[in-house]
Each structure stands twice: as structure tokens, then as C-alpha cells.
Model the fold of this input.
Amino acid sequence: MKICFREQVLKIPMIFPMNKFLVVIGGPTASGKTEVAIDLAKAYRSEIISADSRQIYKETSIGTAVPAKEQLNEVPHHFIQCISLNDYYNASMYETDVLRKLNILFKEHDIVIMAGGSGLYINAVCFGIDDLPAIDLEIRNNLFKKYEKEGIASLRTMLKDADPATYEKIDLNNHFRILKALEVTVQTGKPYSSFLTRKKKTRDFGIIRIGLNLDRAELYDRINKRTEKMIEKGLVEEVRSLVHLRKKNAMKTVGYREIFRYLDDEISLDEAVDLIKNNTRKYARKQITWFRKNNLYPWFNPEKPDSILRYIDDQLNKKI
Done:
């Protein structure tokens, strides 16, 4: 369902020059965040910042569900396909880049829209993230080689010896998180846990949150149909063109890892498609849990735009 706010544009309250607001649109994959964000940006005559940690990469589009060219042309979008898979990028860098961009956008707009499902990236902008040191590429490569040669058990042992506090809290089945902790520890000679202050940073702009979700059956149906559309658009060919980059962290994403298995003749294409659907549904459930955990997001049906706009207007009136 196409959401249109054009008739309600005149109802938007006047914002005083010193009041700036970031409207955050969060929720699970395939819940309609892109469509809602575009229509809100039109209504508020604004621009969109993507909060998707995979759509930010230049080399991918089909498997990361980058908005169609027509959608990107409707309103200005930022942080979509602007970083190479060959370049290191993290949430801390995203925080810095987005705050710099907001400083520019707020000169022209009182309201800016942020939309995406990457909770860590969203929180980095809203609350800040602990400042971590830059990691020497040789250290990063050596640790990854150790993981490839010796497996995750060796990383766990290394982390337990170097930083027991992090070892007790970290997901020991997630080698990416273990590697990140070890990188900082090896780079600085100090435990990774010593850098985690968990202090929230203050922002000089207001934040209004919107969570989008659908009936579970409808959400799953959207996920299944979108997966099939990705295959039709050429997902297999896209993944085949990225084989030389398959060890990159971003290539461990749902949609890519399953097709890599197909290309390796481990599974059939039908099995790969079924796995993508199933793993995407699992990912959507994790996203819903993440967005619900702090009760910061009021939830809305993306197909009922009036309630979304009324809520935003009410929040603006309260904060002005």
C-alpha cells in the first residue's frame, strides 16, 4: 500500500529555528521502513539518512535490498552505497559521519528522517558509542588468520586470558565480536572492557522514534516474496561477482552466505532460497526483540499512515 501524506502537509506545526528533530524509523526487515521514510521526508520536505549497515556498501544492492532507483530519486538519501567492501567501517565511524551530515542538513531542515534496521548504528547516533582506538591492519589480519587456522576456540582462550570481564559477557559463538575485542586488546595492551564506559552522550537535537511492524504472518509473507524477487532480479549473479570478497564481514549477511553455499555445490538453489527465507525470518525476530527491549519505540502499522503522522505531530507540539 502506497502511503501518502500530501494532504496533511499543511497540518505540520511550525518549528522554531533552534529546534531540530531526528525522526527515527526502526523495525524488522521488510516492514516497510523505506516507503514510510520516503513519504515522511516528502511531508516534512526533508531528507533521509539510511541506518542499514549493509546497504552502505557500494558493491551490493540486490541482496541488501537497496531502495530502487525511482525511490532514491524521490527524496535525497544519504549513507547508501557509499563505502567499499574493501574498506573497514564500523558503528563508531558511522556515528561520526552521521553527526557531521546532520550538522549540515539541520541548516536547511528542521526535521531529518533516519530509517533502517541496524539497531547498533541507530543507537550510535542517538546515544553515542564508546570511543575505540583505530586498529592496525596487520593486527586485524593476523587475528583473522588465527581464527581461520585454529578456529573460534583459540580466540575464546586468548580472550579469556587477556580480558576475563569481556569473556564473561560476550557472545562466545560470535567470532566477529570476539575478534573485535581482541583487536582492541592487542592494539592497546589494555582489556577491551576498559574502553566500555556505557555513558550516553547528549545530543543538541530532539529524537522521535517510530517502530514499524506487521502481523507476523504478513511480515513473513513479505519476506518470502522479497526473497523470490531478489532471485528474479539476479541475486545469484550478484553474489557470483563478489566471490573474491566472500571473506569480508558484510558477506556473512543473510542472502549472500546461502548463495555462496549454492555456488560451492553444497546445496541446490531451491534449498538456498528456502534457507534465505528462513534465516531472514529469524533475523526479523531478532530485530523486533532488539527494538522492543528498552520500550523506546511506539509501534505502528506501516499501512496506517495517519496514526504515524499524528504521533509525530503530537511529539513535535510537546517538544516545541
In short: The first strand starts at residue 21 and ends at 26. Residues 56 and 304 are 29 Å apart (CA to CA).
